[in-house]
Amino acid sequence: MKFKHFSFISTFIFSLFILFISINQAQAQKINPPWSNFHQEGKLFTVPGVDNVPDLHGDINNPDLVVFFAGNQFMVVPDLLKAFKEEYPQYKRIFVETLPPGILLDQIKEKAIIIGNMRISLMPDIFTAGKGHIEAVQKKDHLFSSTVDYAKNRLAIMVYKGNPKNITSLKDLAKPKIKVSMPNPKWEGIAKIIIRTYKKAGGEDLVKAIMVNKVKDKTTFLTHIHHRQTPMRIIEKKADAGPVWFTEADFQKMIGNPVSLVEIPAKDNTVVTYTAASLKDAPHPQAAKDFLKFLKSKKSSEIYQKYGFMSLK
Question: Most CB contacts within 10 A, which of 4, 200, 216, 217?
């Protein structure tokens, strides 16, 4: 009798343990940066927090086209590639990276990127970033053969749902107790845009407060991949706010994550144009040419606008 009672308790405790693990995994899956919803054949194996590569998309083996997108466009990639393949069915295998442009540029220069135990030596046909970044790279390194502009974006402040810290402006990010998630200027192109916007909103004093004083006292955290880390840090309440592209905050709201968006007034904000460039030594030059043409199309513009980007007009 005692044995049966013990067995029942053991079974009950084990069941609770399994339920607890399942709930935690479901929550982890929900708040982890979303993976792109590609429909691909093969064994699905994604373990949140352990085995996942959310900024690598598509076919890595013998691709017909390789595109390095500035990372903040990750949410657009599934729809964009689906539409491109429908218009250009000859390109069946496409590989895309959506990492910060500084990291992607280092990958091009060093001929590979290493993530964990994986080494990827594919070189891109297309590199995209802010127009100013593309122009600076071209002036210095002469990597590109042609370029096209295709969308615009502006900044916003991402906060926890309901804005519990009552953050209303960029100046609020300088407050001593406000924990800020800030892109690292060393490799994240958006960081320079944000710093420029800080200057417009509050001058050099605001820049120093957020980028020097608060970095020293660790109330400003510098990210490695801001479009993944900033929403996670805010959702986990490790940060109170983070300056991001408007589209990133809008997307996190769209998929139901507990964040809110604080708009930055136009007089203080910065609008950036996105530019795509084909590389001079592109492995697939015709595919690169076709993809640039597609980015200029009405269909491409509609997809970008669906995710909150601004048209060129």
Answer: 200
